[in-house]
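FIELD: query
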Amino acid sequence: MVLALCGSVAEASDILMLKNGDRISGQIITNQNGAGLGFKTHYGAELDIPFAQVLAVQTEQGTMLSYDDIAASPLSDEAPSLIAEIEEDVASVEPAAGFDAEDPSKYKWSGRINLGASLDDGNSQKKALTGDGETKARNEHNRWILGGNVNFANDEGVETENDQTLYGEYNRFLSEKWFVGLRQEFEIDKVALLNLRSKTGPFVGYQFYEEDDLNLKVRGGLNYIYEDYETGNTEEDIAAAFALDYDQTFWDDMFTLFHKHELDLPYDPIDAFLFQSETGLRVPVSKYLTGTAQVDFDWDNDPAAGTREADTKYSLKLGYEW
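FIELD: result
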């Protein structure tokens, strides 16, 4: 997109959108050497707006300009107005944030579903099915997440995997980066003799990046953990919980690396910690289809009697994204 200076003060009619939800009609008159915007309202007041408070600008022509476009524009202190000259195939500029800059209260939906399966029916008889999914709804102040996964495997009539997980999470953004929230998770693992593990708890989080090609967030809080085993034992714990969620796209969407994990440290006993992680590589197959190679590594430092502490799964999946 090429930005040009044109027009008169009387003709300009831009809409300035601020991160607190306010909208101001008038005209951009200065760039303030990259420090912020000089803005003249229709009722004659001149305002100095720091770039940190600017979400986007909608020009008189209806073009949506993001924060980066405005900050990089060649406006000078003598500039009378700002308009956009765009190529025919460019209708708008997408906002950097994960929500709709034109209407911050509107929810933006995204998600994916992945499935993988294998079957051997010759000298050996093996069957495996794996799948996962996650969907997100995001606006300026709220983010809702719902997801889960399933894994089944049978080797020569012996069940080697049978586990399912379902989770839901709510985030409330207190600022551009900081958020608080609540998470609920349910897990079943028949091979590990786990009838049910429930984790519920509040947290505080920080969103380092939320872009189309880079996302990174961390959270920390408390979890109430309830576990019911096939051995008849039940356990209840309060645990400190720490989690990280990262994904990044490289080389013009050639591939995406992702990793997320959660560590739960129970108050009593302190050495009975839980660690769960997902790491992998995602490659686009077409506009909406992706291929995924993934490794899941879990560690239960206090497993049921007769089961192992470590559990590693390798999977290849084909997915649909929106």
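FIELD: remark
DSSP finds one helix and 20 strands in the chain.
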